[in-house]
Specification:
Blueprint: H1 7-22, E1 34-46, E2 55-67, E3 90-98, E4 103-107, E5 129-135, E6 138-141, E7 146-156, E8 167-168, E9 172-176
Antiparallel strand pairs: 1-2, 2-5, 2-6, 3-4, 3-7, 7-8, 7-9
C-alpha cells in the first residue's frame, strides 16, 4: 500500500492557521486591577531555626488578577515612593474568629504592614495581563498556641495607584499565640 501526500489540504490548513493568528484580539480589561479569590491551603512544616521539634503553619493564598495596562508590581526603588507608606502594593489583612462573640476581629500583624510583589510584566510594555499571585504567610507556634479560625481580606494596587476590589478568602485554622 502506498500513501500519497496532497499539498492542497496542507496549504489550506497553513493559510487558515495564519489568518487565525492575525485576528487575535487582546482582552479588554480595566486599567484598575481586578482580583478574585482562587484558593487557600495550609500545611505544617518543621522549623529547625526556632528549636528542637518546633513547627510552623504555612499558608499559601492564591489570588487571580486581571489588569488592562499591565502595570502591576513594583521595583525595589519604586517601593520607596511615599504614596506606598500605608500598605505597599499588596494589602493583606488577617481576621481571627473570636470564640466568645463568634465574629471575626482583625489580627494586626507587623509582618503584613507593607507588602510588595515584583513587576509582573518585566518588559514594561502597556497591555493587558492576567494570571495569579501566591502569597505565603507563616505562623510560628509553641505549646501556648491554640488552633484558631482565620480568614484574609486582600487588595492590590498598580504603579498608577489604582486600587483593586477587595476580596475575602475562605476560612482555615492555624495555631496562634495571642
Amino acid at each position: 500500500m502506498q500513501f500519497k501526500l496532497s499539498t492542497k489540504p496542507l496549504l489550506v490548513a497553513f493559510l487558515l492557521a495564519i489568518s487565525t493568528l492575525g485576528c487575535f484580539e487582546p482582552p479588554n480589561y480595566s486599567n484598575t486591577p481586578e482580583i478574585s479569590f482562587n484558593s487557600i491551603v495550609k500545611f505544617t512544616v518543621d522549623d529547625p531555626f526556632s528549636g528542637v521539634n518546633a513547627k510552623r503553619d504555612s499558608v499559601i493564598i492564591t489570588v487571580d488578577f486581571k489588569d488592562g495596562d499591565g502595570d502591576l508590581g513594583e521595583t525595589p526603588d519604586g517601593r520607596n515612593n511615599p504614596r506606598y507608606s500605608d500598605w505597599g502594593n499588596y494589602e493583606l489583612k488577617t481576621f481571627r474568629l473570636d470564640p466568645n462573640t463568634k465574629s471575626f476581629v482583625e489580627l494586626e500583624q507587623a509582618a503584613n504592614k507593607t507588602l510588595f510583589f515584583p513587576i509582573l510584566k518585566p518588559d514594561l510594555k502597556r497591555g493587558p495581563i492576567e494570571g495569579n499571585l501566591d502569597f505565603s504567610p507563616s505562623f510560628f507556634y509553641n505549646n501556648r498556641s491554640r488552633l484558631t479560625v482565620i480568614k484574609y481580606q486582600i487588595r492590590v494596587r498598580d504603579r498608577a495607584f489604582n486600587v483593586s476590589n477587595k476580596i475575602e478568602t475562605d476560612t482555615l485554622s492555624v495555631r496562634l499565640t495571642y
